[in-house]
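chain below, 383 aa
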Amino acid sequence: MLIQKAFKFRLFPTEEQAVQINKSIGCSRFVYNHFLDCWEKTYKQTGKGLTYNTCSKALTQLKAELPWLKEPDKFALQNSLKNLSKAYDRFFKKQAKHPRFKSKKNPNQAYKTCFTNRNIEVTDQTIKLPKLGWVRYARSRQVKGRLLSAFIRHVPSGKYFISLVAEAEVKEHPKTGKAVGIDLGLLDFMTLSTGEKITNPKFGRSMEQKLRCEQRKLSHRYEGAKKRILKQKNLTLMDARNYQKQKIKVARLKEKISNRKTDFLHQWSTKLVKNHDQLVVEDLNVKGLLKNHHLAKTISEVSWAEFVRQLTYKAQWYGKTLIKIDRFFPSSQRCATCGHQDGKKALHIRKWDCPQCGAHHDRDVNAALNILHEGLIKPSIEG
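prediction:
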């Protein structure tokens, strides 16, 4: 099976290369915002928007008027226009909100370049990129497949990353003949129908005190920097060294939490797909659950949606089946032994006895068994 797979590495550009990367990001953002404004004005005047081809021709003229647009990678600017066109397509299909202007404050500062005529090459220690030349990187695995494109990203912690997208072939995992029901929770991250419980690591909570302390320092330094700027009007926040140092420190702490969480999700999603042929989960309405202000923070920390997303594409890659049952299925109310529905239970009730057959149940294990049975008998949504 041929798939498009991303290989992410950290880049170590020189000062000149870092300046060039930032120029490409800034010019891509400028082109996106410029043509978004043109698109809106044209729509108000004529009742019709622009097209990618129209914007592409106008970009050539814009480069003649603004010579500095010739400095960055040309593919970065073209891909910025493609992103704008796709954003409008999704908006008119009611799949997304109206396109918005991009900001320098957005943590996702990136641009995309395309592979053509061997302008992107990978060796053991360096990667060749358009306009940048050979850039050092941290090689953690081998890039396999036919290169298609590359995303170069500058994150708030000051680091640079590249995601190489390649068309690679993946082989199906050997069949195990096993099926598993997965009950996602808050006290335990998930409970399997086998009875195994995976503890919720709570990476955010474990480092919350430290993060709060560092954010408080950042706030104090921001106020101090503002007072200094008011006294010396020729200064900006970029001149406030202590503020910038603390800003990076907070960003790296958040990045550490995110990396630990992502690693945890990848490890367990890979393990489950590798060891089971059929995986059954609930089709959770995460957006709806986040409206509960008492549990919103905890729910956002466990990243259920991201975990199910990983299970979905990994199951497709490796020839396994992911089944999503209806979100309104009463998995916690039904006895997995006799099928008797005992009614809704409060969250603090973790164990209960079935009034009909007398079976003693652990709430989460019982729910996982019910999810498995429901998915195997009448699967509603297949991934």
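The chain has a mean pLDDT of 90. Residues 179-200+272-382 form one domain.
thats it, cya
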